[in-house]
Design brief:
The complex is a heterodimer. By secondary structure, chain A is α/β, with parallel strands linked by helices. Chain A folds into two domains: 166 residues, Rossmann fold (3-Layer(aba) Sandwich); 75 residues, no CATH class. Chain A has eight helices and nine strands. In chain A, α6 links the parallel β6 and β7. In chain A, α4 packs across α5. The longest helix of chain A has 18 residues. The termini of chain A are far apart. By secondary structure, chain B is mainly α. Chain B has two domains: 63 residues, no CATH class; 200 residues, Orthogonal Bundle (MetI-like fold). Chain B is 80% helix and 0% strand. Chain B is built from twelve helices and no strands. Chain B is globular. Classes of the chains: A alpha/beta, B mainly alpha. At the A-B interface, β5 and α3 of A face α9 and α10 of B.
Amino acid sequence: MSESPVISAKNMSLIFQTNDGPVHALENINLDIFAGEFVSFIGPSGCGKTTFLRAIADLEQPTSGTINVNGMSPKEARKNRAYGYVFQAAALLPWRNVEKNVALPLEIVGASAKEKQKHIARTLKMVDLEGFEKKFPWQLSGGMQQRVSIARALAYDAKILLMDEPFGALDEIVRDHLNEQLLKLWEKSNSTICFVTHSIPEAVYLSTKIVVMSPRPGKITDIIINTLPKERPLEIRESKDFLDIAHKVREGLRASHSYGED
Amino acid sequence: MIRKIFSSRAFAILTILFALLIIWYVAAIKLNMPWQLNAYERAGIENWSYSQFIKDTLNQDRPVLPSAHQVFTEIYKTTFLKKITSKRSLIYHAWITLSATLLGFAIGTILGIFIAIGIVHNKVLDRSLMAWIIASQTIPILAIAPMIIVVLNAIGLSGLLPKALISTYLSFFPVAVGMVKGFRSPSNILLDLMRTYNASKRQIFFKLLWPSSLPYLFTSMKVAIAISLVGAIVGELPTGAVAGLGARLLTGSYYGQTVQIWAALFMAAILAAILVMLVGLVEKQINKYMGFAR
C-alpha cells in the first residue's frame, strides 16, 4: 500500500522483569495498521495482545525495537491525544453522571463548555444513549456502562480507538447488540480500531484484519485478512464465508498453541 | 400491633436503656451501702427501715457511685437553671472544651490530609513518615500533654491554642492513615485512563484521587472528632484549668464531688455523640451531592 501506516511496529519486543525472572510478553512483533482498518487481536491468555495494545497507548514501553503511532513515538502520540482507550471494565467515575463522565477527557483537554456540550451530544448519540445524560453509573446496566465508556473514548474525536476486551464481561445477547452498534459506529466515525478479544466469532464479525497471537513468548503467528463485505448483518455469522474464516482463525490458534502444555 | 411495638427500634433501645438503669441502681446501692451503714452507726440511728435506707443510699452528697437521677438532676440544674455565662453552667464549660475541640479537629484534619498527600506523592515521605506517625500515637497523651502546654507557654502561647493542639495531636492520625488509603483507592484502570488523557498531576488529584478518598475522609473524621474531644479534656487536666469539662472533672475530684464528675462525663459523652452525628449528616449531604445515595 502506498499510504503510510497509522500504527507500525518493527521488531518490537517487550520483557517484564518480575520476581520470578524476566517474562517475554512480546517478541519480535512486526505489524502495520492502516487508517480505517478494524484490527482484532486474538489469542489465548498471556499471548501479549493486551500488552501490545498498552504499548500502542504508551502504558507499557517496548524493551527493544520500535513502535510508531501516527509517525510519532507512542509517548508523543499520547501527549497529542491521538487515541481513545476502552478498558475491560467500564471504569466510570461513580460520582459523575453519564454526561460528566463523557466530559472528563474534554475537561482535561480544557475544552469550552460549548464544545463539551457538542461532543457529549455527538458521542452519546453514537452509542445510542441519548436521554441518559443525568443518570449515574449505578443506575445503568453493564452494557450501558460500557457504551458510556466508549462514548468517553470518542469524546475528543481521536482517530484511533483502542479497545481491550470491552465486551468480555457482558452476556452474549448484549454483546451481539454492541458488536452490531460498534460496526455502525466505526463506519460513521471513520476511525481506526484495534480490538482485543477472546472470541473467534466476535473477531470475525467485526474486523477487516485478524491478528492471531500465541504465548510464551507472545508473538504474531498469523495475520488473516477478512474478506467479508463491509455491510454485515448479524445473520452473516451463519454464512459459509463467515464459518470459513472462523475456521481459519481456529486453525491458526491451534497450530500456534499446543494445548498439552497447559 | 403489639408485635409491631416489640419489634420496633425504639422498643429495643428502651429495653437496653432500662436494663442499664437497673444495673446502675443495683451497683449504686451496693457501692454506697457501707458508707450509709457507717453514717447510721455514727449518728446512732438504729431503727431504720429498708425503704429509708435505700432512699438515703441513693441520695448521698458524695456517693462512691452517684445514682442516675442525681447525675441527671445535676446536669439539668447546671444547664437549664444557670445562666450560660455563669461559671457554674455546664454549657459554659462544655463550650470552652468544644471550642478547643473544633479548632484542634480542624487543624488536625487539614494536617492529616496534607500528610497523606505528601505520603502518596513522595517516596521518601512514604518510607519514613508513617513509622514516625505511628510512633507518635504510642506515647500516652496524658504524659505528653503537660509538656506540650508547658513548652507552648514558654514561647508565649496560652489559652485556647495549646489545648487545641493536643486535640490536633490525636486527631491528625486517623485522618492521615485514612486518607493515605483513600488516595490509593482508585483502581489501576482509572489511573491508566488518566494517563491516556495525558492528565497533569494536579488534574489527577482533583478529578480522581480527591473524590475517591472522600468516603475515607468522613470515616476518619468521625473517629478524629471524638478523640479531639478527649484531647481537649486531657489538655485541661494538667494545667489546672479553671474552665472546661476537664476543669469540672478536676475540681470534682479535688473536692470529692462525684456527682459533678459524672455530670461532666455525661456532658462529654453527649457532646461527642452530637459531633459524630454532625459529621455523619455532612457526609450524607456530600454523598447525595456526589450521586452515591441510592
